[in-house]
Structure formats: structure tokens, C-alpha cells
Write a structure and sequence with these properties.
mainly alpha; Growth Hormone, Chain: A; about 0% strand; about 475 residues
């Protein structure tokens, strides 16, 4: 497909290249990209959510005081935020794959080293280092995938990636359940995430190419064309290769000015930046309260340790089919309606969890019903929320915008709220009621502030006023 065939011979090179990438039929190689990035999501999700299990398993062996519990619950996530801001500053300037690789290697190494921990101080230091480098990695797959996947299959990536993430969240409480009575349980619980140190970096290096859109924006035109053609070949050469003449349309491709990160807040862009952040913040608050504090909350509310892990595993298990469903419908009914619908439909589930302690002998059944509803809705919203966030930004800002957006939202969702709520986990009304408030707010944001972004990335993001 040439520039003429899509009627964009006079269009900017970024539009021509974007149309070429979107014209490549979905193939086995796209599946490989999804699975490798999904595997990154699995291990980083496991490492991130590990805190919730450590709060329960390490409390007695390491003689953790209430202040130590609060520190372990919140400070590692704060370092995720700091790492995310550091990565945001780098991700559009240096290779996005390099940022992701560094994060994967160092975060999984620290998780593996939990095997050697013998004191709370050692555990906290490892979790702080892990958190910083998780900030490099946990946001990276979405902007990378958004620029590699054909437009109509970004939902396929989002659904499968988030399903693999949900699998990690489901596996982790199950591992905690198995190790609940093991004297070294807190040391062994990180092993499934740590051993991936020897697998994930190799897969990333050999199977994931640098984004041609990013290369073009960095004025590396030949490299951008070569990477497009690499993708075309790996997908079976079912469309003609791209060449620089097609890309340029007979014109010289001028170097593009690299915009400041402050352009995230410029007129014409700030509204979209805020929309993506607020959607993620509301969904993230529910996720972090469940992933980090739910096992502790259930124990404080009267459940046994093993039962608390079992119910935590149940709620994340429900998110596996939920994420597949949300990933499927977000291209049919749009990102905004998917996000709003999932938030609203989660309210009955959260209310059931609020009321479960009043159900007497049926408390576990009532809570389980609420957990299934919540897992299928709000905890399943992330395929739409995270892709929606990436689609708010032009190529020159996408890496920094996505990293910044997730990191900024995580300050509130993963640091401030858990820090405050760790003292209120014994109250179902306060603990689960906070989640009800956040999903009610989140349901309003896409339609109050947002736009629909289904379609070609360049259509929605490359015409931001004053970007350069």
C-alpha cells in the first residue's frame, strides 16, 4: 500500500507510516508481541501485588510493628511513582525498550533476593528498590503496544495483556494460601516472580522491535522504515513494503522538534491528559485497596488467614473473563461507554461486600457474590482505561504521557489512599465504602471530560495545537 492508495500523499509522514502499520493484517507475529508484553505484565503485576501477601506472611516472622506494616504497605508504591516519573522523563528520548528492559531486570532480581531476607529492614529495602524499577516497567507495555498493533487489534492486546496481569493477581493469593503456614512463606512467595529474571529480558530483546512511530518522531527515518518492513516480513509479507519515497511523498522529511514534557499541560492537550489520569486514578484506587489491603482487611474483619487469601484470589479470578469481555466490547461500544458501564455495574458488588458482615452464616457467600461482581467489572476495566490513557497523547508525548499519567494517578491511588486506609481496614463501611465513592466519580469522567478515541492513533493525537 503506497501513500497514494490511502489518499495521503500530501499528508505528514507520521500519518503515512501509521496507515501502513494499521494496514498489516493481524498475524501470528502480533500474537507473539501480545504474549511477550503480556508476560512482562504478568511478572510485574506479580511483583507489584506481592506487598499484600507480604503484609500477612511476614508480619509475625519479622515482628512487624503497626508502623512497619504501614511503611511496607505504602513506601514501595511511592517508589513506583518516583520510578515512573523518572521513566517518564526518559521514555520519549531514549529507547522505550531500554527503559522496560532495565526495569524488568532489576525489579525481578530484587524479588528473587527476598529468598535471602532475614529482617524487616532487608525486606523493606528490597521492596523499595523493586518499586522504583517497577515504575520503569509497569507502564511501558501499553505505549509500546499502542504503536505496534494495528488499530482494530489494540483491543486484542489490551484484553490479553490485562488477562495475563489478572492471572498474576489471581496466582499470588493462591501462593499465599499454600504458604500460609510455612515458616519461610514470606521468603518463598516471591519466587514465581523472581525466576522470570532469566526469561523475560531474552524474550524482549529478540522479539519486540522498537516503535517505528517513535523512530520517525526522533528523525531516524531509515530505521523507522526498516522496522515497519521487519514487522511486515514477520507478519508474512501480506502487504507491500514501505520505502522512504512513499513515506516522504516526494518531499524532504524535516526533523521534528522534540516537545517539552510541559506540553502535556498545554492548551489543547491538558484536558485529554487530565481525562486519562482521572479514569486511571479512580480504577487504580479500587485495585490498590484490594491488591494491597484486602487480605489484611478480611483478617481484621474476622476472616481466617487462609480464607482471606482465598477470597482475594476469587475476586481477581473473576477479572480474567471480565477483562476479556471489556477488551472485546471496547472497540464495539467505545472506550468511554465501556469505562462508565464497568464503574457503574461494580457498585452492587461493592455494596454486597459492605453488607456481608451482617449476613451471619451466609457472610462468605454474600462476600463471594460481591467479589465476583467487582472482579468482573471495576477490576476488569483496565484494558479500556490504560489503552484510553495511551490514546490521549501524540507520538512525541505518548511515552512520557502514559508514564506520567499512571505515576501521577498512583500517588493518590497507591500511596495516599492505602496509607490512610491501613488504619481503617477493620471497618467494612469505610474500607469498601471508599471504593463505592471512587467508582461513582470514575463513571462520570469519560462523558464529562473525555472524547472517543477508537481508530487510527494519528487521527486523534497528531494535530494538537502548539505541540512543537
Amino acid at each position: 500500500m503506497t501513500a497514494e492508495s490511502v489518499g495521503v500523499r500530501t499528508a505528514p509522514a507520521s500519518f503515512v507510516l501509521g496507515h501502513k502499520l494499521d494496514s498489516v493484517p493481524f498475524s501470528a507475529y502480533h500474537t507473539v508481541i501480545i504474549l511477550v508484553l503480556g508476560f512482562v505484565g504478568f511478572i510485574e503485576g506479580y511483583d507489584l501485588a506481592l506487598t499484600g501477601s507480604l503484609l500477612v506472611l511476614a508480619k509475625a516472622p519479622l515482628h512487624m510493628s503497626p508502623d512497619a506494616v504501614r511503611a511496607l504497605a505504602t513506601w514501595p508504591t511511592f517508589l513506583v511513582v518516583i520510578g515512573g516519573f523518572a521513566a517518564a522523563a526518559m521514555s520519549d528520548r531514549v529507547s522505550r525498550l531500554t527503559v522496560m528492559q532495565v526495569g524488568v531486570i532489576l525489579s525481578t532480581l530484587c524479588t528473587l533476593l527476598i529468598l535471602l531476607v532475614h529482617s524487616f529492614e532487608q525486606l523493606l529495602i528490597l521492596r523499595l528498590i523493586t518499586g522504583f524499577f517497577l515504575g520503569f516497567t509497569i507502564s511501558a507495555p501499553f505505549p509500546i503496544a499502542a504503536e505496534l498493533m494495528p488499530a482494530r487489534h489494540r483491543r486484542t492486546y489490551a484484553a490479553i495483556y490485562e488477562t495475563m496481569l489478572a492471572t498474576a493477581f489471581t496466582l499470588l493469593p493462591f501462593v499465599g494460601f499454600v504458604l500460609a503456614n510455612h515458616p519461610r512463606g514470606f521468603q518463598l512467595v516471591g519466587l514465581p516472580g523472581g525466576v522470570t529474571l532469566f526469561i523475560a529480558p531474552v524474550l524482549i530483546y529478540f522479539l519486540i522491535p522498537e516503535s517505528p512511530r517513535w523512530l520517525l518522531r526522533r528523525s531516524r527515518v531509515e530505521d523507522a522504515v526498516n522496522n515497519v518492513n521487519l514487522i511486515i516480513r514477520r507478519c508474512g509479507s501480506r502487504v507491500p513494503p514501505l520505502n522512504i519515497a512513499d513515506l516522504a511523498g516526494g518531499r524532504e522529511i524535516a526533523p521534528e522538534q522534540f516537545p517539552s514534557i510541559w506540553k502535556l499541560f498545554a492548551p489543547g492537550q491538558f484536558r485529554w491528559t487530565a481525562t486519562g489520569i482521572l479514569c486511571g486514578l479512580c480504577a487504580g484506587t479500587v485495585y490498590y485497596l484490594i491488591a494491597i489491603l484486602l487480605p489484611k482487611a478480611l483478617v481484621n474483619q474476622g476472616a481466617a488467614v487462609a480464607l482471606s487469601f482465598g477470597l482475594s484470589s476469587l475476586i481477581f479470578a473473576a477479572s480474567i473473563p471480565g477483562k476479556l469481555f471489556n477488551g472485546f466490547i471496547m472497540e464495539i461500544i467505545g472506550r468511554r461507554l465501556t469505562i462508565t458501564g464497568a464503574f457503574l455495574l461494580s457498585i452492587p458488588g461493592l455494596l454486597l461486600m459492605v453488607m456481608a458482615h451482617r449476613a451471619g452464616a451466609a457472610a462468605t457467600i454474600v462476600f463471594s457474590a460481591g467479589a465476583l461482581i467487582t472482579g468482573f467489572t471495576t477490576l476488569s476495566i483496565f484494558p479500556a482505561v490504560r489503552m484510553y490513557l495511551s490514546e490521549q497523547f501524540p507520538t512525541a508525548l505518548r511515552g512520557r504521557g502514559h508514564f506520567f499519567g499512571e505515576s501521577f494517578g498512583r500517588i493518590f491511588a497507591g500511596v495516599i489512599v492505602p496509607y490512610v486506609m491501613v488504619s481503617h481496614t477493620a471497618s467494612p463501611v469505610i474500607f469498601f465504602g471508599t471504593m463505592v465513592i471512587m467508582v461513582a466519580i470514575g463513571a462520570c469522567i469519560p462523558f464529562a471530560l473525555g472524547r472517543e478515541t477508537v481508530g487510527n492513533l494519528e487521527t486523534f493525537t497528531e494535530t494538537v495545537p502548539g505541540l512543537a
